[in-house]
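Lab meeting notes turned into a lecture example. A postdoc, R.K., suggested we walk through two folding results consecutively so the class can see how the record format repeats. The first protein's sequence and structure tokens come next.
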Amino acid sequence: MPDEITVGDFLIGILPRLHGDTSFPWWPPDCFGLCLALLKRTGGYVQLLRDWPAASGRTLDSWTAEVRELGMKWRLDWSGFRALANEWQIVCNSFGLTLGQVSGEAKLCLALMTIAVVADEAFKGVVAPIDQVADVDDMLDEGSVCLTQSGTLCIHIDPSRLRVLPRMHTPQNGLTERSLSRYLSLCDASEVTPQWQFSQRLASLQAEEARLVGEVLAGVPEKASAPPEVQATVDVYLAWVENNKRLRLNREARHRSSRGR
């Protein structure tokens, strides 16, 4: 029966490396996907929020401030972030529980929710077009590469298991797992096969402008001198392409390094 599946079985089914390596998943969308998927499957967030914020042991203001602070720390040191080690250990210690038991385990549900919302906060601004972000950092750059190449923000969770995407709309009515985040959204693998556009700038081009951009990129001789607005769009696109190449090489180098440890 479904309720007899254990927490460990469920999470390993999403991230297979947890079978032999239960170290903290350092990439925020991976953590978000794991924890929110379990809360969604078990309905654990419902029991938790019936007594919120008292269930957190803090006031709403202090809880919010702590989440924002932890999210910023994760954003600045995403490969070395360890501030949620205790919460992750609670999750790992619960691998033997069945899914039917999760909603009754307030400590586990709180740990799952804490990890998910801090991961969400770490990705603040992920939906903003590149040319509208004041300070595009390495985390958002890496997320942009993941989206355009894989159609998901996750790095270690295969899209066939689940996807994490930027949230474009927060529900205004009711209370579901979708109400728990502001910047990230959990999608079942079968829901969508997204093709992400890197910037609204290209998406908003008129037909004639789009044709000119294509001709400039293709190097059509008679279009060597393009209107300033078209050339500006081309420059943004070419810079994005070069940045993606650099990020991809850096990511591959980090992955090779982590496998060698």
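The second example is placed directly after the first for contrast:
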Amino acid sequence: MLKEGGIRSSLCRSFHHNCPRGLVQEDSMMKISIVLLALAGALAITPAAFADTTAWEFTSTGSTLNNGNGYSLGDVFTVNTTINVDFLGYFANDGAGSLTENHPVALYNAAGDLLASTTINSSAGYFTDHFVYNPISTITLFAGQTYVIDGASGFSDLYAWNDPGFTVYAPITLLGDNWTEGNGDYFTGTSVIGDVSDGYWGPNFGFSAAAATPEPSSLMLLGTGLVGLAGMLRRKLKA
């Protein structure tokens, strides 16, 4: 059973009359707080969705090989506009189930600093025509910068080159490919070897457009406006 004070408080919250001034102000301030929190929540960054654009693809596989030596296969590229990388992948002509080995894949900046990595194998959950992918924590690549993606060839799974219908998707510019001996996702540097028409595949990635970041001055104006709104409502309640 509710006591008299409980009933009165309930009525105050509903009708704002015949109730102590403190109860009205407390209830109003709670509503103000909820509104301000909702406005602030609009600025929150949402998690990245699956990227539906891959860096490069081809319509059919050209030549395939694995000579059993093991390499780090690298691709050097720049981006013309800022993008978010959400997935790293590796070549699998017949889907993830055709892979018999682990293929570490790593993304580096031009200085060789590791930005992201994953291991692609038969459990990879996403695929395009000739590559399979794992999701990663989103990494932003900035316009005009050079990057390198490296992937371990393994000793038996095939990699490809000279592929018909090869396409690099905007805003990626592929500078060329390189490699180094040793089965791993080692940094292969930014120098291009490129003795084939389109590169050795190898690694790939999925990307999405980077959301525009509000300028600090815009955020400051919004924050000042919210503080001013809260102050005005408080003064009105005290009047």
